[in-house]
Amino acid sequence: MAAHETGPGAVRVRVALSGAEPGDTKKRSDWLGYGMPFPRVVPHGDGSGVIDAVGSGVEASRIGQRVWVYGAQSYRPFGTAAQMTVVPAEQAVELPADVSEQMGACLGIPGMTAHRAVFGDGPVAGKTILVHGVLGAVGSLAAQLARWGGATVIGTVVRASDLDQVGAAVARPVALDQWRPEEAIRALAPEGVHRIVEVAFSDNADLDAKVAAPECVIAAYATRRDRPDFPFWPILFANLTIRLLGSDDFPPAAKYQAASDLSTAAHDGALSIRIGDPLPLDRIAEAHDRVDAGTRQRVLLSVPS
Asked: pLDDT of 292-301, one tens digit each?
């Protein structure tokens, strides 16, 4: 089947904006040494646009619908860095009328990961959530979703000089370069935190064990070292759970719930995302360079119609 042909249960989206993420640049650079998964790959899993064709089994009324897309290039060759992309119908999520295409193009990989990290073990209302790397794409959305879900959020940044950049969703920010950050976190949560959203498990495992409440869940989506050490006995005695998050392989039901909640939270005005001015599609190499340089603004590509 050609890249633009719409098969059963699928929709074709005329892409307006394509989102570039660290996962996209890692796939392109073959960071794990798996090789090219397909002879030809169009990158990027995230994007936004308008459905212009549907396959059998999909209601024709969806044609013309504004949508945001996730997972377009997960186990598939053709992502959103093109004028058209074809995805299973459920992966093109209706974009509320009051939510911009720019925000829609930023919800996919980071939003799915953040949602699973926060809600993967049940509701968070009344709980205290520790979000590491709260200025990052996943961390920022995790903090906002946790607050939207009724939690109190403690967020960390690496340097004290970054504290003034922390958003309003974080009730208490903590800098990891201060003396004994675990004491600062424990002062804010004397009984410990109930969930930890972890971006650097290899660096923070000891700290996490010191601030976790009994039966806390550490939801880790990244690490600096491939084989991290962690304090086994303190984690065991506290009956902690370590949940590892690979967004491409979340259960379908979890993805559908995340998609629904992300759209609702965006409609509710609960989400704010730092987005740079979109680059034209022919500057995709520059976009990937910006992602790899660690920009704190989300990187989008404007796709010509």
From this structure: 999 999 999 9
